């Protein structure tokens, strides 16, 4: 049985909803968590695979393979990764920015956007939420970012997916479906079955967003129209353009000294 990390954010709800609804429950074991926690569990061998932060693959590509045709991405605005700021981006130079502890990829993306594409060098400290009294800006992701944006706080609200697309022209891949190398080699048959199930779940979910929204836990704080609109914003594919985008991200991270090398993408075939 494969152990799968399940990100507990709204952007993952459709594909996991369809996977658990339509396919044998005894084939997979789900472990729920936020991206940073699941990244650690993947590294430690506590889960077999996960839609994990793309920077996790960038840092340890020798340990992993990727599932093809699957990601959590944005081609422009992502609507759930925001930099909330008191001032315009150019005025953040030398300021302190609060960073969520739930994400690793978005933190690296913010550093790249600020330093490489806006010429801004800032300081960073951890934060548990929006605190613009303490920080000049705060980076929030996932459901916390969605809820904060819906509340329409004062100041500026920068969508990191939109900033990346404007700077590079590429989609931004926030998460890749990452598999531990030994699992790919030892449980190849099970993995191929899972890949088929995931691709089918992705296809079914795209035609059922309204139905999924009505029964989702997110319906307690987002209405049906907002949820459907959000899910239609997310790209769950991994096309050649997506792959170019993630490779550009790795090269930019390497240029800033965040990654020792910009790795190639290696897939389960």
UniProtKB/TrEMBL annotation:
InterPro entries reported in the protein's UniProt record: Menaquinone_biosynth, MqnA
Q: Which taxonomic lineage is given here?
A: Bacteria, Pseudomonadati, Thermodesulfobacteriota, Desulfuromonadia, Geobacterales
The family annotation for this protein states: Belongs to the MqnA/MqnD family. MqnA subfamily.
- Protein name as annotated: Chorismate dehydratase
The reactions it catalyses are:
chorismate = 3-[(1-carboxyvinyl)-oxy]benzoate + H2O
Protein role? Catalyzes the dehydration of chorismate into 3-[(1-carboxyvinyl)oxy]benzoate, a step in the biosynthesis of menaquinone (MK, vitamin K2).
Q: GO annotations under biological process?
A: menaquinone biosynthetic process
Note the HAMAP family from the entry. MqnA
Looking at the keywords, is Ribonucleoprotein present?
A: no
Chloroplast keyword on record:
no
Q: Which PANTHER family match?
A: CHORISMATE DEHYDRATASE
Q: What is its EC number?
A: 4.2.1.151
Q: In which pathway does it act?
A: Quinol/quinone metabolism; menaquinone biosynthesis
Give GO terms: molecular function aspect only: hydro-lyase activity
Q: What are the UniProt keywords, alphabetically?
A: Lyase, Menaquinone biosynthesis
